[in-house]
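Hi R.,

Here's the chain you asked about this morning:
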Amino acid sequence: MAELCDFGLIGLAVMGENLALNVESRGYRVAVYNRTTDKVDNLIQGRAAGKNFVGCHSIAELVKSLRRPRLVMTLVKAGAAVDDLIEQLLPHLEPGDVIIDGGNEHYENTERRTKYVESKGLLYIGTGVSGGEEGALKGPSMMPGGSPQAWPMIKPIFQAIAAKVGPKNDIPCCEWVGPRGAGHYVKMVHNGIEYGDMQLICEAYYLLKEAAGLNNDELYEVFDQWNRGDLQSYLIEISRDIFSVKDDQGGDGFLVDKILDVAGAKGTGKWMSQLALDLGVPSTLVTTAVYARGLSAMKESRVRASKVLPAPGAKDNLGFAKPVQDLIADRQGFIEAVRQALYASKICSYAQGFVQLQAASKEHDWNLNYGDCALLWRGGCIIRAQFLDRIKAAFDEQPNLENLLLYPYFQQAIEKAQASWRAVVIAATHLGLPAPAFTTALSYYDSYRQARLPANLLQAQRDYFGAHTYQRTDKPGAFHSEWLDHRRQPKP
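And here is the predicted structure, written out as tokens:
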């Protein structure tokens, strides 16, 4: 009888194929299946040739090739395709077997599916997988949630294939997140923070290019230096590399300058923004980043507008012209100011992401460990960065930390960056260069540090037109006033 496999994987697109190769490379025997069976044959005869794989041409064949309890991971398109695949798997599986969804799925679907699969006597895992094609092959960040009883079964494999960090490179970027949809929610927040990080970096690039006139060689050097300090991260690293690549399609010059300025989105950033609204938490950076992508997509309209809408002129400087000119004239000073603005904005972005995780954990009774969440993102994923060590340390020291902005290290970092941050936002506004994420981050910081905001007037307005009531600062309870009866009459 043929040796049974340790792990089954369904879905052999780029991520699935690379993840299967990763699992096999850690000493496991892997069964694979794809609806288009040519993909199975191509893998077995190609990259998997001579390795510990079994190629299957049906779900029944895949399940029969697995040892019990069976571990079956799916990497297919999110949504209805996952539900269909679960229904195809259920008749072939037995109580105690585990279904694992490794796609970019909406957490509510994972909440529902966990309960449904458990009702059939099986176990379910929804795991975020980050790191793209290279991460899947060499070590991704993994964020599993679902049936807690399944974690001991999948832990050895998942932690073996995950990225490793730490002084000895032995800490896996994979740990149990929480019940039901917690894993996919944490992955969604990771992606939302990624949206914010990318937008902030793009704004830094735009200001250095358009305001200070840096060319691509100079931008490479700046980003290389940034990647050696507080901003060290995968996204800064690849941005640096991008500035060095010449056109590989037969043209002259640098490739980045030939790329159309239109950005798409797959949905996770939008999900985070929508869910933040549902929870009533101000995740403004991801929302701004989503809108920035939407505005970039309006290319033809923007081109028409650029021909008729005026840029700021000399008469619009409001006294800012000389300070801005002086700032930009000091090239190294301006580069450093943009770096400080980027770092301060990044702190606000992550602070918002963890506030949303805290609100979601409370809402869904997930009991998330925020230090562990930061640990999961330290390697393998797109937002991996030195900065995450600081976040883990903050939550390890203060597990109930209300907001990262209140942790001493981040307080001091913002204090150091604040003057430069404000100067960069003023410069962008004066020059008419869009910096929506820098500006949004600064507005969030200024709003959060105010003991009193103008929402008192907003509540008065709501009570005036809709009798929605208001609360008072001097006594408890809900109050309503007849504003029309007590108002001052305007002059005729």
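One quick note: Strands lie at 7-10, 30-33, 53-56, 71-74, 98-101, 123-130, 141-146, 164-165, 171-172, 178-179.

Cheers,
M.
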